Structures are given as structure tokens and as C-alpha cells.
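Hi there. Long-time user, first ticket. I'm pasting a complex I've been working with (about 584 residues overall). I'd like to know whether the download I got is complete or cut off, because the file seemed smaller than I expected. Thanks.
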Amino acid sequence: MTSTEATPAAPATAAVPARAAQAAAPDDAPTAAAAPRTGRPGRPARRGPRVGPLLLALPVPALVLVLWTVGVQQAWELPFGIKMGFLPTPLEVGRRLVDLAVGGIVDDAFSGTLLAHLWASTQRVLAGFALAVALAVPLGVVMGRFSLAFRMLEPTVNLARPIPVTAWAPLTLLIIGYGDGSAIFLVFLAAFFPVLLNTIAGVRQVPVRLLEAAAMLGTKKAQVLYKVVLPASMRSIASGLRVALGLAWVILVVGETVGINTGLGAMITQARDQSKTDLIVAGMVVIGLCGFVADRLLTGLLALATRGRPTLT
Amino acid sequence: MPRIGTVRPRQPADVHVAGLGKQYPTRSGGTVAAMADVDLDVPAGEFVCVVGASGCGKSTLLRILAGFEDATSGTVAVAGAPVTGPDPERGVVFQDYGLFPWLSVRENIAYGPRQARLQRSVVAERTDRFLAAVGLTRFADKYPSELSGGMQQRVAIARVLANDPSLLLMDEPFGALDALTRSSLQGELSRIHRETGTTVLFVTHSIEEAVFLADRVVVMAGGASHGVPGHVKEVVRIDLAGERDVTSAEFNALKRRISALVHEEVAAPAA
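Hi, the file is complete. Here it is re-exported in full:
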């Protein structure tokens, strides 16, 4: 009997300090609010031990590498008819990456050429992307701001947009010819539409109220675009730029497939011709990293350009 | 009145509205009259409140004066000049503030003077002065999204005053604020009006607010949904000197009278 009476009593007493702590919280709230906003007041403490983000992120890639290695050694057959026996092991890819960068391991035509390929590809991506931004942002602002321009151009834009850039590639080779020009043009095409559409959308949703405010504060008509429309549509334009830059790296591989000797896409194509799977995978890894780094750089650049100012919500 | 930097302050403007009408096209191809035959004269320096039920055209009147909308008929002149479009001489305070979210409080207030290409020192002096006038000096480097509604509206008022307008147009500026903030801002606006002497046209739903602030209250009635175009029903002079006591008998008598006018219960004894 005593034990059954004691059992309900124990949680009750345990609950008292908890309730007291809750009651104390409102008294602390004003001071917390008055203090500079550094922490997150009012957040309940995280339950369980804190696990470092690296520790959480590592097991999955580690498992993939292990399965990959075992799969290659055992020559597993996966769905889609993937024959893992033809794949290089992660270790071989790593060796090839190091050799690509500094040479001295494999000692073939590709040793130590990474920088040259990287530089050639980066130039093409930058040229095509910059061209797309330089044309699509102004055009998007005009189309978003002036309904006459929008009604004149929107149908054409939306007819041209669904044509995949990869479908442009064969024609491009015929009308521009092999070389830089074709690759840059394809990158330009890939980047153009995401920038254009996001700019139009951003400009069209600039609140009329801000335009009225700008007008009654004496903003000259020519300055409204720069002073109000651009900053108010910055968030949308920025997301267009990020999508476009990602696509630019994707399409680069297609653009460099034919008639180009230097470039990551060209390198992969040559590797395929010579059945060097480790080189193909190394190229894939480098291109993936390029896209990642480019996105981080762009995000940083945009943050720098807006100097951390809040955008339109 | 203090001199503003090296720039001579503008004189308050008078407002002359005659035979003003506004029609909107309807979907069926016809037109609907939102407002017709509105006459209104506001002498320089007067504080006028416009009250009336929704759709009576009071906001339309203000937007035409601001230059945001064109009148269909009639004339509108501010300081003797016809209104052809928005102008920094006619400052507008919106119910939803309309602040630039990417500019700090200080930059929002400095925006107008900068657009006017005033000297840097003049811009800084004006900005500091109006920051202080609305009590936001401590929040100068915050962004609008970090402020409460009442503080944002203070920024909006300071931003317009920094342009030294000759006419202040306010479209239900305190309508979205809680009662306490509202009454403190009414007090501040009243003080600012006494100090600057600017002509004010203030549109509101609140009759008490109108009686508290105005030298004259313009009661509008009608509107497209009533089948009669919006028009001026009556203009009531508020002869209450000095600080107004919202609990006094005179104040409440005026409130009752205007309320009766707004609610079409005209039979109530007036005076």
C-alpha cells in the first residue's frame, strides 16, 4: 500500500520545481527582450547530447564509399543493369584526382592537367553566365515593369523556353562551329531563361505602395528602377542567378563534348573514348565541386552586394 | 519656425478643390461614379479631417490630391498650382507605412532630402532632427522590419516631414495601430502640426480621432455602392482651444453630431 501511495506522490513533487521554473520565466522575459538580440530567448534547451554537424553528416558518405568499394570488388549487378565491376574504386578515383592535380602517379597525357581544364571550363561558364545576366536582367526588368513589353515578348519567351538546351547542341555545332563559341552559347542559353523568368517575377511583385512612396518622395522616373524596383526584386533575381549558375555547369559538359580539347567536359569525353572510368568519375567529382563552390561564391557575392540588408519579405 | 539647414522652409499650402468627380470604368463597359461635385477649400496651415463610411470617396480624394490618381472632372490646386502628379511638396503617409525595407530608419528618413540633392550636411541635419522629433534616435540604424507598427508609422511621418512638405496627406495612418499607440501618435501629430504649421488633410474612420485632431471635419457620404456618388455632406468646425479633452462635454457633443451625420441620423439635434 505504501508503495502505491508513494508512486503518484513522487512525480507530483518532481513536477513542482518544473512549474516553478516556468513561473519564473515571465519575470525574466523583459530583461531577455531588453538585452541585445544575441541568443534565442525562450527556446527550450535541446534534448539529449549535442551532436556535431560533421559527426551527423559523415556516416552516410562513409557508408556509400564502403559499399562502392565492396560492390566493385564483388562486381555487383545493380538495377538498371549497372555492372559495378566496370567502375573504378573510390581509391582509384582518389589516385586519379591527385594525379590530375599534381601528376606523378599515373603518368599519362592527363597528369597534372587539372588546372588547365578547370580554368578553360571556368572561363566558358563565366562568359556564358555573365552574358546571360547582362541581357536577361535588363530584359526582365523591362518586361516586368512595362505591360506592353510583357505582352509583346512573353509568348515568344515561353515558346522558346521549353526547348532543352541539349537539343540546341547539334544545331549550335553546325551554325557556330566547333570551339569556344558553341560552348559559351550553350551556357548562355541555359542561364538566360532562369534569370529572365525570375527577374520578371520579382519585378512584377514589387508592391505598388513602394512605387507610390518613391514618387511622392521625389524619386525621378529614371531612378525608380534603380532605387526601388531593383532592390525590391533582389531576392527573386538572386534565386534566378543561383539556378542559372548551377545549370551553366550542367550544360558545360554537353557544350565541351565535341571539338574542344581543354575543359572538364572535353576531358570526360576523351576519358570515355579511352575507357578510363577512373578519369570520368574524377571529372564528375571536379564538376560537382565546381558547381558547389560557384554557388557559394555567388551567394557570398550577393550578400556583399546587398551588404546584408533585409530584402522585401 | 526654425530654419531648416541652409534651405528656406516651404510655406504651408492652401488647397482648392472644385467640382471634383471621379468615375471608374466597369467590367460591362460602362462607368460608375465614385465621387461627384466635391468642393473643398482648405486655408494654409489648417488641419482638416475627412470622415465617412467606406466607399464614400475620402481616400480617392486624398489620392487625387497626392497625384496618384487623375480626376475625371473638376479642378484640384495646391498652393495655386494644379496637381499633375506626385510631388515631394505633398507628402503622403499611408496606413501600411510604405517604408523601404532595405533601408535603415535613418536612410528611410534621409531618402527624400537625398533625392532633392540637398547638401550632405543639410541631409544629415534634417534626418537627425526628424529622428529626434518622432523619438527614434536610438533606433536610427534598425531596419523597418525590426520595429513595431507604431514605430514604423513614426518613421513614415518623419520621412515625409524631412522633405519639408507644404501639404501633408494622411490616409488612415493610425488605422492599423492599437489604441494606446494610436492616442500617443495623435498627440505627437498634433504637436508636430503646431510646430511646423503645415497644412494637413487627414482621412480617418475614427470620429473621435477627427474631433481630437482637426480644425474642421469634412463629412463625406454616398459612394458607388449607395447608388449616389460620394460627396461632401457637411463641414463641421471644431472650436476647441488648446489641448483637447476627449472626456469633455463639448468634445463629446461634437463627436455625437458628426457621428449622427456619418450614420445618416440627421434628425438628431445639432447645437
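A couple of notes from our side: Strands of chain B lie at 15-25, 31-42, 47-51, 73-78, 81-82, 90-93, 167-171, 199-203, 216-223, 228-237. Confidence is low (pLDDT under 50) at residues 1-6, 265-271 of chain B.
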